[in-house]
Amino acid sequence: MADAPLLEIDGLEKHFEESSNVFDLLMRRDPSKIQAVDGVSFTLERNDSIAVIGESGCGKTTLLLTLIGLHDITGGDVVYKGTPMSSFDSADWKDYRSNVQVIFQDPFNSLDPKMTVEESLKEPLEIHDVGNRDERIRQVLEDVELRPPEKYLKRKPMNLSGGEKQRVAIGRALVLEPDIILADEPVSMLDVSTQASVLRMLKGLIDDYDASMIYISHDLSTVSYISEVVNVMYLGRIVESAATGQLLDDPKHPYTEALVSAIPVPDPHYDRPRTEMSGAPRDPIDLGEGCRFRDRCPKVIPPDDLAVDQAAYREVMAFREALERDALPLDRIRESLDDPSDRDALAAAIRNEYFSTELSGENATTVESALEDIAGGDRETAIEDLRERFESVCEITPRSIEAETDWHVACHQYYDHDRQVTEDHAITTD
Ligand SMILES: Nc1ncnc2c1ncn2[C@@H]1O[C@H](COP(=O)(O)OP(=O)(O)OP(=O)(O)O)[C@@H](O)[C@H]1O
C-alpha cells in the first residue's frame, strides 16, 4: 500500500511458556507465561529514528527477535508497508529480510571470524542477488569510514579493532540499502571514546541511506545522539513515549524519571536530585493486572483516605506483591530461626526482611495481623486484610494517556482515581 506506514507494531505480544514442572503436572496447572513483550505498539515512518529503552530483562531483545521473525508472534502483529507479518508469503519474507537489517551488540560475535571484510560484505549481496558487488562494497566501506577500502578488504575480524569491527557490521547491515535498521545496543561493547563517533556516524548514515531505525538500548544517555523519539519499556510494556528532548527534560512516568535522574551529569558542582527505585524488576511471569512498576514506584498511589508515609506505603506494596505471587521466601526465613516452629519469631523475621520503615496506628495493626496469619499458615486472610486496607489504584492496568500530541504516559497519576479523565488529558486507547 502506497501510503501505509513503513512499519506498524500493533499490540505486539511475545509470551513464552515456562516448561511445566512436576508440580504443575500433578496439579494439572497450565504452564506459567513469561510475558516478555506484552502489547507493544508504535509506528515507524520513513526517516524516523525511534529508541526503545529499558533495563535488562524488560523485553528489548525479544522485541527485536520477534520483529525479525526469529520468534513467532503470540499476539498482535507487525505490519510492513501495509502487509501484516501474520500473512507474509515467502516472497514477502524475502523482501522483508532484505529490507530490515540488524546491527547486534557484539561485533566480536556478529562477524564470521573466517571471512574477510570483503566476504562478509559480499554475502548479503549474493544471497539477494544484487549486482555491482565490488562497487557496492567499496562504497559501503567509504560510508562507514574505513578508508581507503583496499586497506580493509582482505582483513579478517581478528585484525580489526572493536570499533572497526562494528563499522564492518554496520556496513553489512547497510550494504543492501535497507528500509529499516534495528540496532541492538550497537555501541555498548565499544570503548567510551569511540561510542559517540560510531553513533554519530550511524545516525548520519541512516539519513544518507533514507532509512529508518529502531534503536534498542538500556542507556538513556546515548539516545539524544540518535533518536528523535523514545519509548520507555518496563516488563514487556511501553510505559512512556515522547520526543527525546521532551522526555529527558520533563519525564512523566516515575520509571522514566528514575532512569533520567540516573544519567550522570558532567558538572561536578551540580548534584541532580535522584529518584530512587527500590529493588529490581521481577521476572515477567504471570504478571496479571496493574501497573508493573508499582512495587518499586516511589509515587505509588495510596487510597484517598489512608494516612501513610510514601516510603512505608511502597514497602507495604512490595510486600503484598510478593505475598500475592506466593513469592515470600518462607522456607529460607524459617531455616534461619533458632526454633523454626516459633510463629512469633517467624512473623518478626518476615517483618525484618520486608520493612525498614515504621508504620503506625491501624496500618501497623493490619500489617502485624497479616504477618501473624502468614506465620500461622493463613495466607489467604493476610492477602484479603492487606488488600482491604491498602489496595491502590495502581493495581488497575493504567491505559496510555496523551497530554500533548505524541506524548503518551501510562500512569495513574494522570487520571482521577475513579478512572475519570483529568481535566487537561484525553484518554487514548492502548
Ligand atoms: N527463549 C526464551 N524462553 C523463555 N524466556 C525467555 C526467552 N527469551 C527471553 N526470555 C525471558 O523474557 C524476558 C525478557 O528478556 P529479553 O532478553 O528480551 O530482555 P532484554 O531487555 O533484552 O534484556 P537484556 O538487555 O539483558 O538482553 C526475560 O525474563 C527473559 O528471561
Automatic annotation (TrEMBL):
Keywords: ATP-binding, Nucleotide-binding, Transport. PROSITE patterns: ABC_TRANSPORTER_1, ABC_TRANSPORTER_2. Transmembrane segments: none annotated. InterPro entries: AAA+_ATPase, ABC_transp_ATP-bind, ABC_transporter-like_ATP-bd, ABC_transporter-like_CS, Oligopep_ABC_C, P-loop_NTPase. SMART domains: AAA. Residues 20-260 form the ABC transporter domain. It comes from the Archaea. The keyword Transport applies. CDD domains: ABC_NikE_OppD_transporters. GO terms for biological process: peptide transport; transmembrane transport. GO terms for molecular function: ATP binding; ATP hydrolysis activity. The keyword Methyltransferase does not apply. Pfam families: ABC_tran, oligo_HPY. SUPFAM superfamilies: P-loop containing nucleoside triphosphate hydrolases. NCBIfam families: oligo_HPY (TIGR01727). This is ABC transporter ATP-binding protein. It comes from Haloplanus rubicundus. The lineage of its organism: Archaea, Methanobacteriati, Methanobacteriota, Stenosarchaea group, Halobacteria.
